[in-house]
Amino acid sequence: MRKNWLLIGVGLLVAVLAIGAIACSDDDDNGNGDGNGDDIGDIGDGNGNGNGDLLLRLSVTLTEMDGSGASGTAELTVSGEGIQVTLSMAGLQDGVHASHIHDGTCDDIGGIDISLTGIVGDEAGEGSQIDNNTENPLSHYETGHSLAVHEADGSPGTIISCGEIVVP
Questions:
Q1: pLDDT tens digits for 68-116?
Q2: Is the Cβ–Cβ distance between 100 and 119 less than 8 Å?
Q3: Among 72, 78, 67, 70, which residue's Cα sits nearest to residue 129?
Q4: For 54, which DSSP code?
Q5: 56-165: CATH, from 2.60.40.200, 3.40.50.2000, 2.40.50.320, 3.60.40.10
C-alpha cells in the first residue's frame, strides 16, 4: 500500500513538472523571444543564454519608386552601441547611390535625418552596406521615418527605393 502511494506521488510530481515546463516554454508567438538574439524583442547577447544587452531588430522593406526596379531590405539592429543598419538591394544601376534615413513617410518624405554610407550597385545590380549610428536611440524613430536609396551619390536627387521604419 505504501509503495502504491509512493508511485502515485512520484507520478504526480512528474506531471506537475511537465505542466510547468510546458507553461514556461517560449513559443515565440508573444515576441519575448528565446534569448538567442534573433527575434524582435529578444533579450540576449546572441549566445542563447538570455544574458546581455537588449537586442531589437526591425526589418524594413524597400520598394521600388517610379519604376526604377530597385528594391531591397534593411535591418535595423539596436544594441548598447546604438543602431546598426544593414541594407541589401537588387535592381540598382552600376555605381554609388546615396542612402539616408529621412523624416516622414515615403509618400511625404522630409529632410535627411541621418546620412548613411552610399550603397554601391555592382554589374548584377546588387549591393549591400552596413552602417553604425550612435546618434539617436530607437525612440527617435517612433515619430515617422523612412529609409531611402537615391538615384546617384553626391547630390542625390530622385529616390529610387524607399521603406518606412515602423517601431513597434
A1: 999 999 998 886 668 889 999 999 999 999 999 999 999 999 999 888 9
A2: no
A3: 72
A4: B
A5: 2.60.40.200
